[in-house]
Design brief:
Elements lengths: L1 H22 L2 E2 L10 E4 L3 E2 L14 E4 L5 E5 L2 E5 L5 E5 L1 E2 L5 E2 L4 E4 L5 E5 L4 E5 L5 E6 L4 E8 L3 E6 L11 E5 L6 E6 L16 E5 L5 E5 L4 E5 L6 E5 L22 E7 L5 E8 L12 E2 L2 E2 L10 E9 L4 E8 L2 E6 L3 E7 L5 E11 L1
């Protein structure tokens, strides 16, 4: 009997070890796998923002809709441009009434060229018609920032977090927008349900879909990639741990230490390759704090020259082979990656005017 028990225990231990091993993330090597591959960049074109809607700082998000219009979100401002960067119109105004917004976090394309605006401070999502007119609003139960429509209206995947003593640490929620009150139908993620003690990093996820319908998420504060063939269940986890992003970022920015690295934008191209823009400390990051001002004992955010904090490392990842296909080190801050691998660069000109430029990128083999 003792021998049989030992055999059973050994079998259980073996099965458990294989399960744990299967769940371990696969590390992506630092070496570039395609020696002849290079990332080619076009000349920069700028979005032409009229004076009446002049930017006060870096925009929060940019998106492209089915008509190739570019949407720029900055606080409660929503600006729409055509593909060439020409300004088309501003949408809404500040407030909590119909067609008003407090702080927009994302804009999602819906069937029939309608659009969905997420407004986390108002805990509300608003639907716009194809003519960009306000149609209706829906309330949602907690704050979430990024999203992607898998199937409208009952399957929208968002990245967010709940609050309170029973709050989940898993960052992904499948939401149903079919009713005036939006509800979560599933919560999952790759955190494992528990954060390590003292580990309170940003769990925002960049969300993309590939041509096979799989969802690919990339952690904003850690170079962790998860490929979901079945949401909340079947997944493949990859990790990048280069010297310039060796561990998850856990601290904020300040004048006495370099800004922590962060994933600023991702996109999956038609061939299934994942483009990842990572913000890394610029050599002259300290100069961003030279004009620092205090208000009520706290640093005034607008006094920080954020465009001087970061440079960018752009990588093309093959998620199937878990390899880096190509890499480029870019001067300046790339704050997002749009469809068609169009890079969004934020800068400030010599007159102090914020500028948002679009750079077309392609992989040359």
């Amino acid at each position: 009997m003792p021998r049989f028990r030992r055999l059973v225990l050994a079998l259980i231990a073996s099965v458990w070890a294989s399960l744990v091993s299967a769940q371990q993330p696969e590390r992506i090597p630092d070496a570039v796998s395609c020696a002849q591959c290079a990332i080619s960049l076009s000349a920069q074109t700028f979005l032409r923002v009229p004076g009446a809607h002049a930017l006060t700082g870096a925009p929060y998000r940019l998106r492209v809709d089915a008509q190739s219009r570019i949407w720029m979100l900055e606080g409660n401002s929503i600006l729409v441009f055509d593909r060439t960067g020409r300004f088309r119109q501003a949408i809404g105004r500040r407030g909590r009434g119909p067609g008003e917004y407090e702080s927009t976090s994302d804009v999602l394309s819906l069937p029939g060229d309608s659009m969905l605006i997420l407004d986390p401070l108002s805990a509300r999502a608003s639907v716009l018609s194809p003519e960009l007119k306000y149609v209706r609003s829906m309330s949602y139960p907690f704050m979430f920032g990024r999203g992607v429509v898998l199937r409208w209206p009952d399957s929208v995947l968002v990245s967010g977090r709940t609050s309170g003593p029973r709050a989940s640490v898993e960052p992904l929620y499948l939401m149903n927008f079919a009713q005036p009150s939006v509800r979560a139908t599933r919560n999952f993620g790759s955190v494992g349900g528990v954060l390590r003690p003292g580990y309170s990093r940003d769990i925002t996820q960049h969300i993309n879909r590939n041509a096979r319908g799989e969802v690919i998420t990339v952690d904003h504060a850690a170079y962790d990639i998860t490929i979901w063939s079945k949401l909340g269940a079947d997944r493949k986890q990859l990790q990048r741990r280069p010297s310039w992003f060796a561990a998850p970022s856990t601290q904020g920015i300040g004048p006495n230490s370099p800004p922590p690295p962060a994933i600023s934008g991702t996109w999956v191209d038609a061939s299934g390759l994942l483009w990842v823009a990572t913000s890394v400390p610029a050599p002259g990051w300290k100069s961003a704090w030279s004009g620092m001002a205090l208000t009520g004992g706290e640093i005034k955010v607008s006094s920080i020259a954020v465009e001087l904090l970061y440079d960018t490392v752009l990588e093309v990842i093959d998620p199937v082979k878990a390899r880096v296909v190509a890499r480029a080190q870019l001067n300046g801050w790339i704050l997002d990656v749009l469809p068609g691998t169009r890079l969004v660069k934020y800068s400030v000109d010599i007159t102090g005017e914020p500028r948002v430029g679009i750079i077309d990128a392609k992989l040359v083999r």
